[in-house]
Design brief:
Largest sheet: 11 strands, mixed
Distance between the termini: 16 Å
CATH superfamily: Aldolase class I
Shape: globular
CATH topology: TIM Barrel
Structural class: alpha/beta
CATH architecture: Alpha-Beta Barrel
Number of strands: 13
Strand order of the largest sheet: 1-2-13-10-9-8-7-6-3-4-5
Radius of gyration: 22 Å
Helix content: 25-40%
Oligomer: single chain
CATH class: Alpha Beta
């Protein structure tokens, strides 16, 4: 069903007005899914047009895209997309910043602790001394990532577990907003064996001291890069400080497509949205910013790899990880991060005359205004 924008807007206004606990019937769900696919197809065409303008665009077996030298592509991403999977290691439930794009925006103070002297690995709780047992009984991952929320809030606790993973030959990368880095704590991470440190420049609006901390980290840690959700504001600020950032010693930049949940969606109210394969919800500006950014990087021959860490990339990642776990063909954990489709979020894009659908048809009988649709 290639529903028209006019009919799509009419139906989504109706769905948005329904009570939260009122479910859609099969035909109503068919209409909703048809609208989401129409928006997604139109946005995929816009993205394809931007990709066609990027010189030297490279693909990692169709799983993701990047520009720049192959040797500078982040190894943590290779572990995630092509290795034996990427295990998240969680410890810190606090952050010193409050970013509008954070998945936990508005509820940072409500994040439950992992547990005293404990680490969450694979969804379970372990003490550092348990790792020898894990390495003995489980399949060792090609890489692990330290996430959730800001590790440098208690960075003194990390070297011990980093050293254990390092001694086991596991590649390790960590995410940080970069505001709490010092020469001392960076050296402690490097001495413990951290392989890769990723700075979220968007969290600090490319603050000068964070750029300085990236340069300091690059002196000690083998690979230092940037990973941040792409927004027009980040792109403008980055380009204004481009020379300083590119000369800081970073080797890559992961341009993450901003995806939204119930916590951060209100911060982007009124933006045009689309949904990737009925899963991640994102403002259309995010990946379009990434692709324009990659074109600039390729044309100016920046000395870093710039990676399109899009929803599509994460879709491929989930399928790969399920395959590594022995899942059946097509198995994936991909899914929507909302309990119910956020119909109101799509009203701006459906009302935007500058965002046309690629192809439209009249609604079939049974789906038209006045028909009983359940």
């Amino acid at each position: 069903m290639k529903i028209s924008k006019r009919d799509a807007l009419m139906w989504f206004r109706f769905f948005a007005a329904l009570e939260e606990d009122e479910p859609l019937g099969p035909k109503q769900t068919e209409i909703a899914y048809a609208v989401l696919r129409q928006i997604e197809r139109a946005e995929e065409k816009r993205q394809k047009d931007l990709m066609d303008k990027i010189p030297g665009l490279k693909s990692l077996d169709g799983m993701t895209y990047y520009v720049g030298e192959d040797s500078r592509f982040p190894r943590g991403c290779l572990s995630c997309l092509k290795g034996t999977g990427l295990s998240a290691v969680r410890r810190t439930n606090r952050c010193n910043l409050n970013c509008p794009f954070c998945y936990d925006h508005g509820c940072l103070d409500e994040q439950m602790p992992v547990g005293e002297d404990m680490w969450e690995i694979g969804g379970c709780k372990y003490c550092p001394e348990d790792l020898d047992m894990l390495f003995a009984v489980g399949r060792k991952p090609s890489g692990v990532a330290y996430v959730y929320l800001e590790p440098f809030m208690e960075i003194e606790k990390y070297p011990e577990i980093i050293r254990r993973f390092h001694n086991a030959g596991v590649y390790q990368h960590m995410y940080t907003n970069g505001t709490l880095c010092t020469r001392e704590n960076l050296k402690a991470l490097a001495d413990a064996g951290l392989d890769e440190l990723r700075f979220n420049l968007g969290a600090s609006a490319c603050a000068d001291r964070v750029i300085e901390n990236m340069a300091m980290a690059a002196e000690m840690i083998p690979r230092v890069g940037i990973e941040t959700p792409m927004t027009p504001e980040l792109m403008e600020t980055f380009l204004a400080k481009k020379d300083r950032i590119l000369s800081s010693g970073v080797s890559f930049m992961n341009c993450a497509e901003l995806h939204l949940n119930e916590n951060n969606l209100p911060n982007y109210e009124g933006e045009n949205m689309y949904m990737t394969r009925l899963g991640y919800l994102s403002p259309v500006f995010s990946r379009e910013c990434t692709l324009r950014f990659m074109r600039i990087a390729a044309e100016e021959k920046w000395p870093i790899a710039v990676h399109d860490c899009s929803n599509r990339t994460k879709f491929a990642r989930d399928a790969h990880q399920k395959a590594q776990e022995g899942g059946w063909f097509g198995a994936s954990s991909w899914g929507m991060e909302f309990g119910r489709l956020p119909f109101a979020a799509f009203l701006p894009v459906l009302a935007d005359p500058s965002f046309p659908f690629l192809e439209e048809e009249e609604l079939p009988p049974g789906f038209r205004p006045g028909d009983i649709v359940i």
